[in-house]
Amino acid sequence: MTGNAPAPFTTDDYRARMERAARAAADAGLAGLLVAPGPDMVWLTGYTPTAVTERLTALVLTPGHDPVLVVPTLEAPDAEQAAGAPALTLRDWTDGQDPYAVTAALLDGDGRFGISDNTWAMHLLGLQRALPGTSYAALTDALPMLRAVKDTAELELLAAAGAAADAAFEEIRKVRFAGRRESDVGHDLAGLLRRFGHSQVDFTIVGSGPNGANPHHEVGDRVIRHGDMVVLDFGGLKDGYGSDTTRTVHVGEPTEEERTVHDIVRAAQEEGFRAVRPGVACQEVDRAARAVIDDAGYGEYFIHRTGHGIGVTTHEPPYMIEGEEQPLVPGMCFSVEPGIYLPGRFGVRIEDIVTVTEDGGRRLNNTSREMVIVE
Fold first, then answer.
1. N or C: where does the chain have the smaller number of CB atoms within 10 Å of the terminal CB?
2. Distances (CA, A) of 176 to 180, 182, 223, 230, 273
3. Distance CA 140, CA 153 (A)
4. Beta partners for residue 339, in sequence order
């Protein structure tokens, strides 16, 4: 995204998020948070610089103090237009000033701070030079669940993004696959996502035949053939919130083995979804889906985690993976996407975005998970 976030949040919403983040930092034993331009800044303030450059921009959140946005003077007019700006103090600096000294004046010189993962190394090193007594922890490590629980408005935006991706799938299944390149179908998918309201397309994976056995193949120049299984995984941002869904289609009638593998993955996806309820550890979703594939004898061919969170980015915490003991909480949103990948032959993946409700889970993708035949 460029410019200020289009999502319909108010200054009070952003103020509440910044206060919540500052409290979470204190509870984690941090002296505060330093947030660079990127998804965390968008979520906390509604602001994205029109151009992310070498000039330092940083949101400073420290418990007990008003939030401060440090910006280059030439970017200040844009920052003032952000929805969260009235809840902030803007501290601008001009070329020729030392931005690290400006920022250092806002910090405890001996503190440990959470810092957003996408901060440029030159900026972190500049802060360390200005305040050699400080230390830093990646925000994903320090506060992994900061954005994980969505409010009602966020859930509505995620549901709308999911519905738009579903509409794109319903249209793409009508196009001709056989005789066309993967990149052609990927181009069609991207156009459909935009047609149904996406401002940003993050990925359009079209893995045909043996390419489907590579989970992140994306697209290539391979010509899709009659008899191919084709993995379609696509998503992006609509009104600032993400979509991500996968369906696996077949060009013409599948073999008995292909139907069997597809049915196993569909059953695994269903079991993963059924495991979703408040209080259950994230790893239990992974275990439920993986058990179906293991029991069917394909365990070695399920080579990735079962899911990832989604929000203002298409991949974020929480992760549905063995060892993640974070309990599910109503409002969390994440994918459930088991797969089987047979090297040199074909792959199958089925993915829905799911949100945790008070008594279970709700799918945000609702297209058929049955085998879909395309031409």
1. C
2. 8, 11, 12, 12, 32
3. 23
4. 349
Q: Is the dihedral of CA 146, 21, 9, 45 positive or negative?
A: negative
Q: What is the model's pTM?
A: 0.92
Alpha-carbon distances, residue 121 vs 38, 76, 94, 301 (angstroms): 15, 23, 21, 37
CA diameter of the chain: 70
CB-CB neighbours of 273 under 10 Å: 19
Q: Which of 8, 30, 246 is nearest to 136 (CA)?
A: 30
Count, residues in the chain: 375
In three-state secondary structure terms, 182 is helix
**What is the C-alpha to C-alpha distance for residues 88 and 16, in angstroms, rounded to an integer?**
12
Task: Give the SS3 label for residue 309.
Answer: strand
- Using DSSP bridges, classify how beta strands 361-363 and 229-238 pair: parallel, antiparallel or unpaired: unpaired
Mean pLDDT of the region 327-338 = 98
Whole-number percent of the chain with pLDDT over 70: 98
Q: In this structure, what DSSP letter does residue 224 have?
A: P
What is the C-alpha separation between 204 and 56, in angstroms, rounded? Answer: 33
pLDDT score at 218 = 83
Q: Is the N-terminal amide bond of 318 cis, ω within 30° of 0?
A: yes
pLDDT in tens, 89-102: 999 999 999 999 99
The span from the CA of 316 to the CA of 146, in Å, is 10
Would you give the distance in Å from CA 56 to the centre of its chain? 25
| Alpha carbon 347 to chain centroid, angstroms | 23
Quote the distance between the C-alpha of residue 159 and its chain's center. Answer: 14
d(CA 190, CA 168): 9
Contact 32, 25 (CB under 8 A): yes
Q: Please, which contacts does 282-285 make with residues 24 or more away whose CB atoms are closer than 8 Å? A: 282/318, 282/319, 282/320, 282/321, 282/324, 282/325, 282/326, 282/327, 282/328, 283/320, 283/321, 283/322, 283/323, 283/324, 283/325, 285/320, 285/328, 285/336
The pair of structure tokens assigned to 338 is 């088991």
Nearest C-alpha neighbor of 343 from the set 210, 225, 251: 210
Averaged over 192-220, what is the pLDDT?
94
Within 10 A of 240 (CB to CB), how many other CB atoms are there? 23
240 and 147 in contact (C-beta within 8 Å)? no
In whole angstroms, what is the distance from residue 299 CA to residue 82 CA?
48
Kindly report the backbone phi and psi dihedral angles of residue 306, in degrees, each rounded to the nearest multiple of 5, phi listed first.
-80, -25
